[in-house]
Amino acid sequence: MSCLHRKDLGLLALRIGTGGVLMAHGAQKLFGWFGGHGLDGTAKGMEAMGFVPGRQSALAAGLGEAGGGALLVLGLATPAAGAAAAGTMVGAVAVHQPNGFFGQKGGYEYPAFLGLSAAALGVAGAGRYSLDHLTRHRLDRGLYVALAFAASAAAAISVVGRRVVPAPPVATPAAPAARAASPSAPTPDDVPTAVQERVVDDGSDA
User: Fold this and answer.
1) Which among 97, 143, 140 is positioned nearest to 122, based on CA atoms?
2) How many whole angstroms separate alpha carbon 44 and alpha carbon 39?
3) Could you report the per-residue pLDDT of 18-46, keeping only the tens digit for each?
4) Distances (CA, A) of 144 to 55, 69, 78, 86
5) pTM score, two decimals?
6) Residue 32 and residue 73: Cα distance in Å, rounded?
């Protein structure tokens, strides 16, 4: 097998893997498939994360993932597909960034990897086994790469820049306030351990 064919097969595998994952996430947002919340639920989540208006933000994210992912799988308009998906992932990275890098701590590792993979495909092209190749790269020229990524970067900067970061919840010291209002009321520290265990058992059986 020639080096050229190996490269094209590798690009096909990367397109199917990256594009397929993006399509699944987009379908969760748009249609509620694969355990997703659909457009209405995603819109509420977007507003809670500071992206307003929520419905338009949910629609844009869903289309960027599902549409960009589908085009990557097909290998059609690859620069636009990769740029759209990468731009969408910038918003996801911004949400997870306060948690650090690694995914097990809620960090931005996963969306960053998806975004970089999509961007790499947008720059490299889809390879021989693609609709771009069949259409003689009419939608995959060098100028389109620059235009697509410039537009995606501008859109991502605008969206993230207008994001209203939610303030962390303020914990209210309910127990001390309650004790001050009723000094004679016992607190959990005043109740014997055996009684607490019995109350927990009774409550779990209800």
Assistant:
1) 140
2) 9
3) 999 999 999 999 999 999 999 999 999 99
4) 29, 18, 9, 15
5) 0.78
6) 21
